[in-house]
Amino acid sequence: MTIKDVLIGHAASGNPNGCRAALEQGAEVNAVDRYEMTAAHVAAYYGHTDCLRLLLDRGADLDLRDRDGHRPVDDAVRAERWSAAALLIRHGADVSLGHSQMARVLGADPHPAGIVTKIPSEQLPKVRAAATRKGLTKIVALIDAFRSQGNVSTELAPKGLRMRV
């Protein structure tokens, strides 16, 4: 077993002290396993925010994709680990919904590329209610996670909805 396997194993089991020790013994924070997943992918998927916070502090790359094309934030959202998703977003991960997805939420036509329309925070309840009516539970959960973290900024950007906390 290599030191990178030890790091990824500790991230999977939620052991931040083990992650710290592996990093101190020379594990690369962005080392990948056979699925091209990093320790950040694994910690995000399992919702181990203490491990994830440590990895982020040590320079984990938020944009690395595994062999299926997922980033750590994608894994957190896919596994419905909303605290991990919010942590990643606070550290700069981008969560965007395509215009067609946002149009489904708002019941409107997608904006043409290049037009940016901000959605004021006071409109989030309307967006949340629309997502709830349409059964888009992951969008509802993301909005709730963001709102619980404090300030939320949302905008319709060229590639879709962007939320920042």
Provide a descriptive summary of the structure in words.
It is a single chain. The protein is α+β, with helices and mostly antiparallel strands and 165 residues long. It has two domains: 3-90, Alpha Horseshoe (Serine Threonine Protein Phosphatase 5, Tetratricopeptide repeat), CATH 1.25.40.20; 96-164, no CATH class. Helices cover 50% and strands 9% of the residues. It has nine helices and four strands. The protein has helices at residues 3-13, 16-24, 39-46, 49-57, 72-78, 82-90, 99-106, 124-133, 137-148; strands spanning 96-97, 117-119, 153-157, 160-164. Strands 1-4-3-2 form a four-stranded antiparallel β-sheet. Strand 3 (153-157) and strand 4 form a beta hairpin. Helix 1 runs parallel beside helix 3 and helix 3 runs parallel beside helix 5 (72-78). The radius of gyration is 17 Å and the shape is elongated.
CATH homologous superfamily grouping of the largest domain: Ankyrin repeat-containing domain
Give the overall shape: elongated
Strand content: 5-15%
Overall number of structural domains: 2
Read across the widest sheet, the strand sequence of neighbours is 1-4-3-2
The CATH topology of the largest domain is Serine Threonine Protein Phosphatase 5, Tetratricopeptide repeat
Oligomeric form: single chain
What's the CATH architecture name of the largest domain? Answer: Alpha Horseshoe
CATH class of the largest domain: Mainly Alpha
Helix content: 40-55%
**How many runs of DSSP E, i.e. beta strands?**
4
**Given the structure, what is the number of helices?**
9
**CA radius of gyration:** 17 Å
Element-by-element helix/strand order: HHHHHHEHEHHEE
Based on secondary structure, the structural category is alpha+beta
> Biggest sheet, open or closed, and with what strands and sense?
4 strands, antiparallel
Uncertain stretches: 98-118, 156-160
- What's the N-to-C terminus distance? 38 Å
Average of pLDDT: 77
